[in-house]
Amino acid sequence: MPSYRSKSLAVALAATAAVTTLTTAAGTPASARPQADRAEIPVLTWTPCARPDLGGPPTQECATLPVPVDYSDPTGPTLSLAVSRVRSEDPGLRRGALLVLAGGPGGSGVQRLTQKGAKLRAQLANTYDLVAFDPRGTGRSSRTSCELPEVDRHLVTLRSWPAPGGRIDANIDRSRRTADLCAKNGGAVLRSLTSANQVRDMDRLRRALGEEKISAWGTSYGAYVAAVYAQKFPNHTDRWILDSVADPDPARLARTWMANTGQAVEDAFPDFAAWASDPARDADHKGPRLAQHPSWIRPLVLALAARLDRTPQDSVTPTGEPGVPVTGNHLRQALQNSLYGEANYPALAKLIAASLSTDPQTKPVLPPDLAGPLPDADAATTIGVICNDISWPAGETSTNSYRRAVRADRARHPLTAGFPANITPCSFWKWAPAEKPTRITSSGPSNILVVQNRRDPSTPYFGALKMREALGDRARLVSVDEAGHGAYLGTGNACGDQRVTDFLTKGVRPAGDIDC
Prior knowledge:
Elements: H1 8-13, E1 47-48, E2 61-68, E3 78-86, E4 96-101, H2 109-124, E5 128-133, H3 155-158, H4 169-185, H5 187-191, H6 195-208, E6 214-219, H7 221-232, E7 237-243, H8 254-259, H9 261-276, H10 297-310, H11 328-338, H12 345-356, H13 376-389, H14 395-412, E8 448-455, H15 461-471, E9 475-483, H16 494-506, E10 514-515
Parallel strand pairs: 4-5, 4-6, 6-7, 7-8, 8-9, 9-10
Antiparallel strand pairs: 1-2, 2-3, 3-5
Helix pairs in contact: 6-7, 10-11, 11-12
């Protein structure tokens, strides 16, 4: 987090959605904003939208929620948010609505409900209507665009991976170019993409659902947004799950989240190394065994990345057509993505094995999110939120500081080669933050459960402890002894899953922090 990962389902669902461009200002300071409830709340009109072909619940429904571009102008221009739900089938058991919040920034809540709805229903029975939405700029909701060239929208260029040897001149030029294009083409919609506005949109959805209180399961960036909502609207929270959460330091936010990635990947890598050297790899079809001992995997990966830095290797698409050349940064990005869960390990192992092969007929196959450019609207949303939320060091005066930081981070965390410390478009952003980020505190009802994997490659455990500390007695922490990003219904840890399910269905929360 931020992940910049491809949202293929969200993009497919968005094929018929218009790109919304407006010219009204959306940057009114918080002190000048009226309360969100000044805006009239529309009625949601639900229609069937089940996607059984994608494993979604058969009773899934969709609707559209209009929201103001600028909450200080509640009768002004609006955006459309895609909303989805799976209704409880037993009114006698129904407690209320559970809002499912995806990660990102840029993750589709509708997609996540489609993916997780069946598992959630199995765990929670009919306790809740399961509800999700695509945040502004995402999926089937109103979108915007920076009109970035394709070369700047590949995952390995959108993320600030340094050039071989750690050079960042290309990153500086690309960051400046991206910020210029976003300022020129993004308009008021891009300016409105903030965590604070997503929280306001959440409360507008709550009111449209007719719920005085709502429960939530937020994962990754969605957990941060959920924490902000619990701080801003504490009296409207029921049972609150923060899953895979990051350090909430309001002065830094995504700066810290990115900086922590290097250590997060280092923490999660040993689980992949153990899997990739397991003798069982010789006996099953889940992926090749890469070495005979876990300690051999790390130098193997680092040496392969260095070789690909020097000499990129031809790849093929899954259908056998020529693909983009595989560079060291493609391998590093594939590694980080794959560490999100063990289900991703086989594809990574196959990519590594094919890249190591001396057979000229064997070529690596890149995963879809690395095989081509991301849609421009996806890139704009992720960049917009992290740059709009806080101020970053000014690019024109801090380039040498970034060079030093990248050198140091490459030495500390070789697997990520300096990108967590590198410059981003935010250092050249044309807009100052419209309001100060919310500070998470211990003030509010004690109704929060934090669930966190100990070896998370994106939101590391040490960052989650910062959130736990900030919440004080409002929260309890379930520490899950697993690797991967996303603890609840994500790793198969029965203890962790049961603690979350018990809290959501019965209100039973541990008396103190516990380990699973």
